[in-house]
């Protein structure tokens, strides 16, 4: 028979483990794209993940902002001059060919004016999608990033965060 102390200790540990990652109201907490993008853009670079650990490295490799879709990462590099790129990597951040996605588009919504849809093409090396549009001067511009991957249409709205210089 277990002693009461051991039983209580196990019960407390189980309750703590069950509560990890939960907000006060019991819902699983999640970061918004804006918060994720802001934190990625302003946080100091952390050391790269050792040994290619899955989902351990979210540092931008090309000066953009890293997001996730399923078990794949994609880095959106937004340029105020209008020359944007999208790179794809696997869960361990190893480069994937641009052809893992299709129909890559950006829709830039400036505070004034009509939305601008920019259709991408795969670069000559097959490494990224290039998307050339009008220059972006207004810091309040938002961007819808859209693509097809694994047979499914995906999109996300993100703030315009210019590439790191």
Summarize the topology.
Blueprint: H1 4-19, H2 33-42, E1 65-69, E2 72-77, E3 83-89, E4 101-109, E5 116-119, E6 121-122, E7 128-132, E8 142-149, E9 152-159
Antiparallel strand pairs: 1-2, 2-3, 3-7, 4-5, 4-8, 6-7, 8-9
Summarize, please:
The chain has 2 helices and 9 strands; from the N terminus they run ααβββββββββ. It has 165 residues and is an alpha+beta fold.
The rough form would be described as globular
Compute the CA-based radius of gyration: 20 Å
- Our count of helices gives 2
Helical fraction equals: 10-25%
Average predicted confidence as pLDDT? 76
Number of domains: 1
The number of E-state strands comes to: 9
Low-confidence runs: 7-51
CATH class term: Mainly Beta
Strand order, sheet with most strands:
1-2-3-7-6
Name the beta content range.
25-35%
Q: Largest beta sheet, briefly?
A: 5 strands, antiparallel
Counting helices, strands and paired strands, the structural category is: alpha+beta
What is the name of the CATH topology? Immunoglobulin-like
The end-to-end distance, rounded to whole angstroms, is 65 Å
Write the CATH architecture name: Sandwich
- Output the helix-strand order: HHEEEEEEEEE
Question: Mind explaining what this structure looks like?
Answer:
This protein is α+β, with helices and mostly antiparallel strands. The protein has one domain (about 30-45, about 55-160): Immunoglobulin-like, CATH 2.60.40. About 15% of the residues lie in helices and about 35% in strands. The protein has two helices and nine strands. It has a five-stranded antiparallel β-sheet. The longest helix is centred in the first third of the chain and has 16 residues, at about 5-20. It is globular and about 40 Å long.
């Amino acid at each position: 028979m277990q002693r009461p102390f051991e039983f209580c200790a196990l019960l407390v540990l189980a309750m703590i483990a069950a509560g990890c990652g939960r907000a006060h109201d019991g819902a699983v907490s999640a970061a918004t794209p804006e918060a994720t993008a802001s934190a990625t853009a302003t946080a100091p670079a952390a050391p790269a993940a050792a040994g290619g650990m899955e989902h351990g490295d979210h540092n931008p490799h090309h000066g953009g902002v890293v997001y996730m879709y399923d078990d794949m990462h994609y880095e959106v590099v937004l340029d105020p001059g209008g020359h944007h790129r999208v790179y794809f990597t696997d869960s361990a951040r190893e480069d994937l060919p641009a052809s893992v996605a299709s129909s890559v588009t950006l829709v830039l919504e400036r505070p004034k004016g009509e939305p601008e849809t920019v259709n991408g093409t795969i670069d000559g090396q097959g490494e990224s999608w290039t998307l050339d549009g009008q220059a972006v001067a207004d810091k309040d511009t938002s961007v819808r990033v859209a693509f097809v991957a694994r047979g499914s249409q995906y999109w996300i709205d993100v703030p315009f965060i210019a590439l790191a210089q």
